Amino acid sequence: MANRNIKVVFFDFMGTCLDWHSGAIKALPQSIPESERSKLALEWRQDYFDSNAARLAAIQPPENINLTLRRTLDALLEKHPRYKELFDHRTKHQCVDAWHSMPAWPDVPPAIEQLKAAGYEIFVFANGTTRLQLDLCKSSGLKFDMLFSSELLGVYKPAPQSYRKALELVNVKAEESVQVAAHAYDVRGGKEAGMKTVYIHRWTDDINEDMEVVRGENNFFLEDMTNLAEVIGRL
């Protein structure tokens, strides 16, 4: 049953809704052992987060995600020189381009449909570009009422103005909304803005976070989205 106190549900996208890891390790040179490709992908992802955080701290505007991914990939290869010769210009381009085509986690499509059927408006609210989000909707088959990117909003999450702007654009109060994310910094930002928060635990993300701490910070902590509509109904 829908919670009439909640009008909208905001979703982070990459990691929360999308299995970026599978796509990333497919794009990396297959001559690298899969276990090493996995480690490289996880490190690359963390470096991307660190780059965004550094730009936000320096009060710099959002950067095109393709540029951030290429720069962090180059830096990653400097840390792992034994793999550098496997990455020519074409391979690097393919690795970056792969982030525009990622599958949904299998628990996500039914959760989205349940929320729609219950009458909630659902939005993507994520760092990155609008083009990236459009491409990812095509590759994943997921459909949302609106896509809000850091490019569109002009600031990265978890800056407070990012949450305020998204709420202003859909004309709802913070307490009438839910932020769903697999990133502790994101749900912390949403909570600070006055939103309800649901943390989705994905093994691919928040690899440096203490999950017991995160568990206690949110309205709900879920291992996947199977029961997402149910818990939002209880908020």
Describe this structure in words.
- The protein contains eleven helices and six strands.
- The N and C termini lie close together (about 10 Å).
- Helix 9 links the parallel strand 4 and strand 5.
- It has a six-stranded parallel sheet, with helices on both faces.
- The chain is of the alpha/beta class and about 240 residues long.
- The chain is about 50% helix and about 10% strand.
- The model has no long low-confidence stretch (mean pLDDT about 95).
- Helix 2 packs across helix 3 and helix 3 crosses helix 4.
- It is globular.
Nutshell version of this structure?
The protein is α/β, with parallel strands linked by helices and 235 residues long. It has helices spanning 20-27, 34-57, 65-79, 89-97, 108-117, 130-140, 150-153, 160-170, 184-192, 211-217, 228-233, and strands at residues 8-11, 121-126, 146-149, 177-181, 196-200, 220-222.
* C-alpha termini separation: 11 Å
Q: Mean pLDDT across all residues, rounded?
A: 96
- Distinct helical segment count: 11
Q: What pattern of helices and strands is seen along the backbone?
A: EHHHHHEHEHHEHEHEH
Poorly predicted residue ranges: none
* Gross geometry: globular
Cα-based radius of gyration, to the nearest Å: 18 Å
The number of strands is 6
Helix content: 40-55%
Task: Give a quick account of the main beta sheet: strands, pairing sense, barrel closure.
Answer: 6 strands, parallel
Structural class: alpha/beta
Strand order of the largest sheet: 3-2-1-4-5-6
Our estimate of the beta-strand percent is: 5-15%
